[in-house]
Amino acid sequence: MYNITGYYEADTLAEATALLAEKPKLELIAGGTDVLIKMHGKAEDTELFSLRKIKSLEIIRKAEDGTIVIGAMATFARVFKDPIIREMIPILTEAAISMGGPQIRNIATIGGNVCSGATSGDSASSLFALNARLKILNSLGERLVPIQEFYLGPGKVALKPGDILTEIRISPEDYQGFGGHYIKFAMREAMDIATLGVAVTCKLQGNIFDEIRIGLGVAGPTPLRCLEAEEFAKGKDISVETVAEIGKLAVRSTKARTSWRASKEYREHLVEELVQRGLKIALVNAGGAELV
Amino acid sequence: MAYTVVGKSVNKVDAIAKVTGKAKYTDDFHERDMLVGKILHSPHAHAIIKSIDVSLARALPGVEAVLTYKDLPRINYATSLPGYVDDGTETECEAECESDRIKFSTAGHPYSLDPGHRDVEDRHILTKKARFVGDDIAAVVATDELIAEKALQLIKVEYEVLEALTSTDAALKEGAPLIHEEHEGNILASGGFAIGDVEEAFKESDYVFEGEYETSIVQHCHMENQTSYAYIDSDGRIVIVTSTQIPQIVRRVVAQSLGLPWGRVRVIKPFVGGGFGNKQDVCIEPLNAAMTIAVGGRPVKIELSREESMVDTRTRHAFKFKIKTGINQDGKLIGIHISAVSNTGAYASHGHSIAGSAGGKFRYLYPTKALKYDPITVYTNLPVAGAMRGYGCPQIFYAFESHLEDIAKRLNMDPIEIRRKNLVEVGYVDPVSKNKITSCGIRECIDKGKALIKWDEKKASYKEQRGNKLRGLGMACFSYASGTYPVALELAGARIVLNQDGSVQLQIGATDTGQGSDTVFGQMVAEVLGLPMEMVHVISTQDTDISPFDTGCYASRQTYVSGMAVEKAALEVKGKILEFAARMTDIPVDKLELVEQRIIYKHSGESVLTLEQVAMQSYYDRVHAKPITSDSSNNARINAIPFGVTFTEVEVDIKTGKIEVLEIYNVHDSGTIVNPLMAEGQVHGGVSMGIGYALSEQLTFDAVTGKAQNNNLLDYKLPTIMDTPDIGVAFVETYEPTGPFGVKSLGEPPTITPAPAIRNAVLDATGVAFNRLPMNPQRVFEGFKKVGLI
Ligand SMILES: Cc1cc2nc3c(=O)[nH]c(=O)nc-3n(C[C@H](O)[C@H](O)[C@H](O)COP(=O)(O)OP(=O)(O)OC[C@H]3O[C@@H](n4cnc5c(N)ncnc54)[C@H](O)[C@@H]3O)c2cc1C
Q: Longest Cα pair distance anywhere in chain A, in angstroms?
């Protein structure tokens, strides 16, 4: 049961921002797979504003400077199938296919995933590791927000009434030369939210780590980066020992807590273990030799 | 035995209707101006209603009625319909008093003429005392869902909150508040059985072992939630269309709950989207009937949400077992003592029957000189536990098959050998039920499973494993029953009408809720009458006004018990056809046979008449016309014991605590398999349910408030198809002499032993015994941590 008291659509972004400026209380709906669940069974009046007619928001492209631009309304199915993403940032392809099930991937958008502000969002940890920037538009203009600054708390993001997320942008220096891997650790192989999401990217120089980035989901109230571990890795030999130390250090950046879903101790253990597993695969994807 | 239709994988009779969307389920029916009923559930696990004010809700436009316990009929209330609407004459005290309102039981058991055998009547349609988070406090009938929802929010309830007893330990503690005044110590019931002297047996045994095992609360998660609608028809009778396994029992319980004559209620069961025992209980229909009465008989619909269905209907009883076993050096079991505490939640529902069934069905597998079973069933302030596939057996076999595995390990015996030493044989008579084992293929099942999984080969190759991923093998056996005899009545009915063209209609009282009983019954009729399947029209809908009487769909009883009635009805029709043909031809009836829609001479096979000729004469002969029908009822005072085993191979990720089932084989002795493809499907479903039980499923509750934490399909980890390995199915087809066509049951057995087999495989792989379900990664992590594996 949904108490939808109004439904609006716009054909262009200009129309959309204008309408939002006029009616800032409208609830934006993309695929609706979060919004409708939140509304389900609640009696409060809600007016929805759908972005689905704005086809330009679905486009995924590579800009001339090499920046990868993902429209906020691109569905996970589209992200998964997209050849540019598959070639340039396959870690996001992995994240996309780990999400929900076929029906959900066909309707759920990457923009909705980010705007929902869930620490468990399957795109989030990868986008953190990729230093994604979010382009946000309103009737007054647009701004670019680094994803690390976008997540404010559980379900809270840096969007103000009237704002629309239009693009997710990944600069060439954030993916070129990197190899990556996403591990979704969940209780089920499909249709589940992550117990822990681990996105690791790395760039190698011969036998040393040039740069690594670790994005984690569900290791705190928002997705986060493991900066201490990343800092440590710089210039270190690629070895089982280094990787083990990185796993340990990664735990220090987390803010895991005990809930009925999992204990803090278990979550931290998983961070240490899965960061290592993720990194071992990422470094092979970056052209390194397998660590045994 | 050679059959032509029985034993063939004919298409499910409703397969095309279901995949094309033609099959109509409860929600596919509409009455004009149907109203919507919604329920206000208690937010407290244990609380007394101090006051309840529905005036604002009643005043909301579109609200047609608001009900609380005060609006429900009092005991001995007798009136003609419609309505027992407040006549305003009662005093304030009477109005406030709950104790004189009708109490009833909801369990889907046949009625018992012996009052001592009846289910515990501990429930009101709406309660004044909340006994779990989700208890039904008030109800609204409105013109649409949204208004009903808004009205619920306008009901003001003042509660006196009591201590919530969220575990059996808390409920059993000295001085714990009583959940039901009549049940001292919060014990619903206790008592099992004793065969021989178990203490003596322990003295005689070479070794005595003890173990403790615990299972969790899980939920059925049938695809279709509980849904029904009710109205009063032109005859003044309450008609309820509902998704149920037990239309006849729903009829009785609705009548009882409202103090109505039973004949005043009519229940119709259309296609049903699964039940697994949860719909062997009368959950929403009494309230639905009360709602339509409250609005003068207008149609009212109740459709539970998934969140409601998961806590406000029924769950599986969680058990805690203590087992003590005496065994000899050679592996022979001498004495077993099983104590069990069963958590029934806030109301009795099936209550102690689950614990009783567990012990009763376990008894057949390993007969020992002495076996003592001491179960108690305890009330707690948690959702109500009821019937669920396996009816106590997944619990007890998890415990005992784990225990036996531990013993084998301690005695350094092969786990298969220790079982073989103790298995039952044909001819054994159970000393308690007096049921006799008349067929038994358990040994062959074990041989088959062992070969399928390549037990010896893999055991040898996994001896020297190292690393973070370890593999292991496990197995576990079970016995079950084919119905409830001698515990309860096993009455079934079938009716057949021969049409003019020689086809037949088959009506049965037993309900197909997805498992395929309609098809199996159709095959039985086709077999007896020599008809092709397409000439047997099985009426899938049960209607208590029209269908023959049958107690319902439960206890894996239908193919065996209801099959007897179907076979009987078919044989009767066959007899009548041949008699009619004899009269038409003057050939003695014993010289005639019915094959392939022809009446033939037995000795030569020569055709005498077509079936159609006989059928046409039976309708239109100006002198002898008398349509050929049968209406049979069968009271099965017998039972047959099916057996089986699960073999599995797992891989355990030591570092993450994840267990992966690599292979699983579920091998059954269910007598004759009537439809191999459907039987395989039944096993697939049952095993996947068993895997969920083993590894991931569990309803969890806040220990203080008693509120469910995961009553939705995201947080409740029902396995998806991606989590389900290929499930290996095999049958050892014995011939059960007491069953129709040699059948035994198969409905529930597949669910019984995946969990202990997986548990034993994990033990084999890691050396760690998990004696508590589910073995989810968090638990496994803790277990490994404790022994230093992590
Ligand atoms: C069955 C099921 C399984 C799921 N499985 C997963 C899973 O495995 N992993 C996972 O991460 N999530 C999962 N989800 C959650 C959900 O599908 C995702 O978060 C999805 O990406 C949300 O996208 P949407 O397009 O449906 O967003 P919507 O529900 O339409 O919107 C979500 C929120 O974002 C806002 N919003 C949407 N687009 C914009 C925009 N362009 N600008 C500003 N605000 C916007 C909306 O107002 C709303 O607050 C699952 C959900 C369901 C129902």
A: 61
Total domains in the fold of chain B: 3
- Where is the domain boundary, B161, B189, B219? B161
For B517-562, the DSSP string reads: HHHHHHHHHHHHHT--GGGEEEE--EETTTSPP---S-TT-IIIII
Q: Do A191 and B720 touch (CB under 8 A)?
A: yes
Give the per-residue pLDDT at A76. 98
* pLDDT at res. B78: 46
* Total count of residues recorded for chain A: 292
Range of the domain at B331: 318-484+639-786
Suggest the residue from A187, A192, A243 to mutate for an interface test with chain B (most B CBs closer than 10 A). Answer: A187
Q: Which of B656, B714, B721 sits opposite A185 (nearest CB)?
A: B656
pLDDT of the residue at B231: 98
Task: Sort out which chain A residues have CB atoms less than 8 A from B721's CB and list them.
Answer: 190
- Please indicate, yes or no, whether residues B680 and B752 belong to a single structural domain of this protein: yes
B74: CATH: 3.90.1170.50
Fold type of domain A57-173: 3.30.465
**What's the CATH code of the domain at B608?**
3.30.365.10
Are the CB atoms for A150 and A119 separated by under 8 Å?
no
- Decide if B531 is inside a domain: yes
The pLDDT score that the predictor gives to residue B98 is: 66
B700/A260 CB distance under 8 A: yes
Question: Residues B310, B81: contact at Cβ < 8 Å?
Answer: no
- This complex has an ipTM of 0.96
CB contact under 8 A, B717 and A270: no
Residue B497 has a pLDDT of 98
Claim to verify: residue B679 and residue B617 sit in the same structural domain: no
- Report the distance separating Cα B654 and Cα A114, nearest Å: 33
* Residue B497 sits in the same domain as residue B457: no
- Compute the distance between CA of residue B316 and CA of residue B386 in angstroms, rounded to an integer: 6
Within 6 A (CB) of ligand 1 lie: A 27-35, 37, 51, 72, 99-100, 104, 108-109, 111-113, 115-116, 120-122, 159, 164-165, 191, 193
Fold held by A177-285: Enolase-like; domain 1 (3.30.390)
Out of A43, A192, A260, closest to residue B709 by CB: A260
Cut 0.90: pTM above it: yes
Task: Using 70 as the pLDDT threshold, list the residues of chain B that sit under it.
Answer: 1, 75-99
Q: Is A191's CB within 8 Å of B782's CB?
A: no
**Helices H / strands E in chain A, number of each:** 12, 14
B652 and B756 inside one domain: yes
Nearest CA in chain B to A196: B656
In a shared domain, residues B613 and B664: no
Ligand 1 binding pocket mutation candidate from A4, A7, A26, A33 (most atoms within 8 A of CB): A33
pLDDT in tens, A193-252: 999 999 999 999 999 999 999 999 999 999 999 999 999 999 999 999 999 999 999 999
Core vs surface per residue B346-377: b (16+ CB within 10 A) or e: bbbbbbbbbbbbbbbbbbbbbbbbbbbbbbbb
Q: How confident is the model at residue A42 (pLDDT cuts 50, 70, 90)?
A: confident
CA dihedral B389, B394, B395, B397 (to 10 degrees): 150
Q: How confident is the model at residue A292 (pLDDT cuts 50, 70, 90)?
A: confident
- Would you call A188 and B723 a contact, using CB atoms and an 8 Å cutoff? yes
For the stretch B375-417, pLDDT in tens is 999 999 999 999 999 999 999 999 999 999 999 999 999 999 9
Q: Which residues fall within 8 angstroms of residue A247, CB to CB, at 6 or more apart? A: A229, A271, A272, A273, A275, A276, A279
Residue B9 lies in a domain: no
**Encoded amino acid at A179, one letter:** G
What pLDDT score was predicted for residue B93? 45
**A87 CA → ligand 1 middle, Å:** 25
The verdict on residue B260 lying in a domain is no
